[in-house]
Amino acid sequence: MSVLASKSFTEPEEVREFPHGHVDLVTVGDATVGRAEFEPGWRWSQDVKPIAGTDSCQAAHTGYILSGRMHVVMDDGAEGEAGPGEAIMVEPGHDAWIVGDEPCVMLDFTGLRDYAKK
């Protein structure tokens, strides 16, 4: 039996707010998909760490950057940056922040189910 499901981010099932941003979540089948918006000045270690209670982000992210730029530093020191039109994969154990004065908007297909959940 075929299944086709869709949900709109214009009416997310859940919105999680944190300083300098928010995540809109929808569940499609067994998948939780998030649309995250990080404002200039957002940094995981300042804005989400107090909610997560871990030293670094422990979510694995697989996503696509729609706008803005994000810099990521892994716990082992490896680092990189992603911007519009780029698909990304970030393993657990990282910090990240927004580069520049444009919000970073990204779709995340793996890492937002429990992200910034109080």
Automatic annotation (TrEMBL):
It holds the Pfam family Cupin_2. InterPro entries: Cupin_2, RmlC-like_jellyroll, RmlC_Cupin_sf. It comes from Saccharothrix ecbatanensis. CDD domains: cupin_DUF861 (cd06990). This is Cupin type-2 domain-containing protein. Residues 61-108 form the Cupin type-2 domain. SUPFAM superfamilies: RmlC-like cupins. Transmembrane segments: none annotated. It comes from the Bacteria.
